[in-house]
């Protein structure tokens, strides 16, 4: 849009008013989307930030199911060297938590139940369920049922889930029950509590289900406050008590606290630093307020657009948004600099026309860098891309729409001392960047960079995305060790055309897993086929018992000789042949409750089950168990995301080269093909030196380093554009334009650079790369004009 030099003040004010009204409407919409829908739309769930990596939709659904099976639940372990104190403390903890409405249910003391009632549903299926050992014994030639009966009669007293002698005289059902997960758990019912003993310590399990999502800020605060009060009480009343905890609510709260700390650190330090810089440079608080006004418009627009597109804000975006201050303020700085350099000859519309090419060209290069960032199939990075693009666009448009109406009077020139310093630095870089000397310096820098490049490595581990507190990880590991919880990040997905085929395929996997257990490569596993055998296996088991049960008189004599009463013998014989156990029936039993999430159900794509290995996280070992088995696949979400990160990290160098190739014709068209290489040299050499420095610092490259380098290219190109477009208009004040470029660079370093101190490893990588890249590029950018201007007097 062409602006006449003498655009009337009234027209500028009208446009500014309309822009301000639109900004207020966008702000109101953003506030509603963020706070007005029942909960704050800030996403602390790491799983929600990760890309979809599983090609099988059922595998991705299984990942979600496992992640949230106990996601809204606290798992607490009360520990004390005194058995009575541990149990009393657990009871008090349960009662204290149950008083708070934030918990939907709290389980410390077990509800009254009869173990016999838990066994009763299996009695009708007792002749269809055999262990591997009993199956092998019955199939062996010369099997003697009298020996099996004798072993059963001489077996020690059972205090867990067990069958009575009259219901299971040969112990077949008992053996089967002994191999079930609930029988192998280290936690045993004791005094109406779930208790484990390890060394001289007693551990009591307490669980609390939240009445809401673990990722809801209000739920987090209320639940953690309730737990803190209860914990303080039991430690006072029962000295020596220690409480371990795990659950998504603790990780989500820690992540939120870390993000809030980062936002405050980056936001406040960068805001104060930028404020001091602007006041010192422009010698008035007015430009400071206008610069932050432009930035605020960008942040408001970015937040609203992100919420409209994604429905929520990720933690990474939240912290990244605080750092966006440093880049969004660049556009207003250039307009303020043009005003300061114009002196008494200032006209708002003329100044806007003067800076417009630089701003639009800089905006285009920035949008290109962020658009490439959005190509990565990673929800958090895509949201950061949308956030940045919309924020940059709105901040730039605010310079066109708001500032001309607010900056119609001339201003004092830039502070003289920073301009002199900038001029001295510009002359020095010009001197070394001119002609053959410049080529030699560039060659020397590249030679110095070579050892750093040689030392570069990489690390694609997804766990570097967000740092999980070491204390929480240690407590989770202790709870897993004591309670026997499985590893939920790695699991097998078993699929079949129907329920029967799925269970048969899981049984084939079970045989391999059992071999791994026998060779001490695995501690165990949890799966449905061990609890609900396939119909085929049950038919085989039933057939193995038929030779014995087809001679009832022989069995009667055997049992009578062992002292069984006639009515008990008659009842047991009358139960033959019984009925096979079906999955639908088993899912309705009380003992199935903790394991129902292992059944994925059936759909048009087939049926699926989840099998959880325990005792190893070695991918190669676990993969061997699945190799060659139809319908069986190992799913490792962290590993698959890490592989995706690695693949896109390898692609990133190509993307960076593509971005350079795209910028080259734009600069060639604007500045001419002979000058274009000089304009491109500072950002490209800045990237090269950044990579070398990362190598010297032994920083393994991640996807986030490469994404930051993409932004270094965009920001560095901006500085070259600002210098080339602005210098002709500031020829009467040598050094003034470079001073404004340095001001833009320092504001970016104050915001993006502070990310290098973030609690999130991904943002630390991002911030360190930008800190180095922007610093190198800002120092090198005067060389882009070394051949087109002489040092000013």
Identify the CATH architecture of the largest domain. Answer: Up-down Bundle
Helix content: 55-70%
Quote the CATH topology of the largest domain: Multidrug efflux transporter AcrB transmembrane fold
Structural class: alpha+beta
Termini Cα gap: 37 Å
Question: What's the story with the biggest beta sheet?
Answer: 6 strands, antiparallel
Could you give the count of β-strands? Answer: 13
Rg from Cα: 35 Å
Keywords: Cell membrane, Membrane, Transmembrane, Transmembrane helix
Main location: membrane
Membrane topology: Multi-pass membrane protein
Pfam family, one: MMPL
Summarize the structure.
The chain is α+β, with helices and mostly antiparallel strands and 793 residues long. The chain is built from 31 helices and 13 strands.
């Amino acid at each position: 849009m062409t602006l006449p030099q003498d655009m009337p003040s009234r027209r500028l004010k009208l446009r500014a008013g309309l822009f301000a009204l639109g900004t207020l409407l966008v702000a109101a919409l953003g506030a509603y989307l963020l706070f007005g829908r029942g909960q704050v739309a800030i996403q602390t769930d790491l799983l929600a930030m990760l890309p979809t990596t599983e090609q099988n939709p059922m595998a991705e659904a299984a990942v979600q199911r496992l992640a949230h099976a106990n996601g809204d639940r606290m798992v607490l372990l009360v520990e004390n060297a005194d058995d009575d104190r541990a149990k009393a403390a657990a009871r008090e903890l349960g009662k204290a938590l149950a008083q708070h409405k934030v918990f939907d249910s709290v389980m410390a003391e077990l509800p009254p139940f009869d173990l016999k009632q838990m066994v009763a549903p299996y009695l009708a299926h007792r002749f269809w369920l055999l262990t591997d050992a009993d199956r092998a014994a019955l199939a062996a030639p010369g099997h003697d049922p009298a020996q099996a009966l004798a072993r059963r009669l001489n077996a020690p007293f059972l205090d867990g889930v067990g069958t009575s002698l009259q219901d299971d005289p040969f112990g077949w059902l008992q053996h089967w029950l002994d191999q079930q997960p609930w029988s192998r758990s280290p936690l045993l019912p004791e005094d109406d509590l779930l208790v484990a003993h390890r060394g001289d310590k007693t551990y009591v399990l307490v669980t609390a289900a939240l009445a809401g999502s673990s990722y809801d800020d209000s739920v987090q605060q209320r639940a953690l406050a309730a737990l803190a009060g209860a914990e303080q009480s039991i430690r006072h009343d029962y000295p020596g008590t220690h409480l371990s905890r795990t659950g998504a609510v603790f990780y989500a709260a820690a992540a939120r606290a870390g993000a809030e700390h980062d936002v405050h650190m980056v936001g406040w330090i960068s805001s104060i630093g930028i404020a001091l810089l602007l006041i010192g440079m422009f010698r008035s608080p007015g430009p400071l307020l206008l610069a932050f006004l432009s930035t605020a418009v960008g942040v408001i627009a970015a937040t609203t657009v992100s919420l409209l597109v994604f429905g929520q804000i990720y933690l990474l975006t939240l912290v990244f948004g605080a750092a966006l201050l440093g880049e969004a303020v660049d556009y207003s700085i250039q307009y303020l600099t043009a005003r300061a350099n114009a002196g008494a000859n200032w006209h708002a519309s003329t100044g806007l026309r003067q800076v417009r090419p630089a701003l639009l060209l800089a905006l285009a290069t920035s949008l290109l860098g962020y658009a490439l960032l959005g190509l990565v199939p990673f929800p958090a990075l895509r949201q950061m891309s949308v956030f940045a693009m919309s924020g940059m666009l709105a901040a730039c448009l605010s310079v066109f729409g708001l500032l001309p109406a607010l900056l119609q009077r001339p201003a004092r020139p830039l502070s003289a001392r920073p301009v002199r310093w900038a001029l001295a630095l510009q002359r020095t870089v010009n001197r070394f960047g001119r002609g053959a000397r410049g080529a030699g310096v560039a060659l020397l820098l590249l030679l110095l960079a070579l050892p750093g490049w040689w030392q570069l490595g990489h690390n694609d581990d997804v766990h570097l995305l967000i740092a999980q507190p070491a204390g929480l990880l240690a407590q989770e590991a202790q709870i897993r060790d004591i309670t026997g919880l499985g590893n939920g990040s790695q699991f097998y997905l078993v699929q079949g055309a129907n329920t029967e085929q799925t269970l048969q395929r899981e049984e084939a996997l079970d045989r391999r897993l059992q071999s791994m257990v026998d060779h001490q490569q695995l501690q165990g596993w949890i799966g449905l086929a061990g609890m609900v055998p396939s119909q085929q296996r049950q038919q085989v088991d039933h057939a193995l018992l038929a030779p014995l049960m087809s001679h009832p008189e022989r069995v009667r004599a055997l049992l009578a000789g062992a002292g069984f009463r006639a009515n008990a013998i008659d009842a047991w014989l009358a139960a033959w042949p019984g009925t096979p156990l079906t999955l639908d029936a088993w899912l309705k039993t009380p003992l199935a409750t903790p394991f129902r999430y292992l059944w994925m159900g059936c759909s048009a794509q087939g049926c699926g089950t989840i099998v959880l290995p325990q005792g190893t996280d070695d991918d190669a070992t676990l993969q061997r168990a699945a190799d060659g088995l139809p319908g069986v696949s190992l799913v490792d979400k962290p590993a698959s995301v890490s592989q995706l990160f690695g693949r896109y990290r390898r692609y990133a160098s190509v993307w960076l080269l593509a971005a350079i190739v795209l910028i080259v014709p734009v600069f060639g068209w604007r500045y001419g093909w002979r000058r274009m290489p000089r304009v491109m040299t500072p950002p490209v050499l800045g990237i090269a030196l950044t990579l070398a420095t990362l190598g010297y610092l032994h920083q393994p490259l991640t996807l986030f380093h490469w994404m930051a380098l993409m932004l270094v290219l965009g920001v560095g190109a901006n500085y070259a554009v600002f210098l080339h477009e602005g210098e002709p208009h500031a020829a009467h004040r040598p050094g003034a334009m470079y001073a404004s470029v340095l001001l833009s660079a320092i504001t970016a370093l104050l915001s993006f650079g502070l990310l290098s101190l973030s609690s999130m490893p991904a943002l630390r990588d991002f911030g360190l790369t930008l800190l180095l890249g922007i610093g190198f590029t800002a120092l090198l950018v005067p060389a882009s004009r070394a051949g087109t201007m002489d040092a000013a007097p």
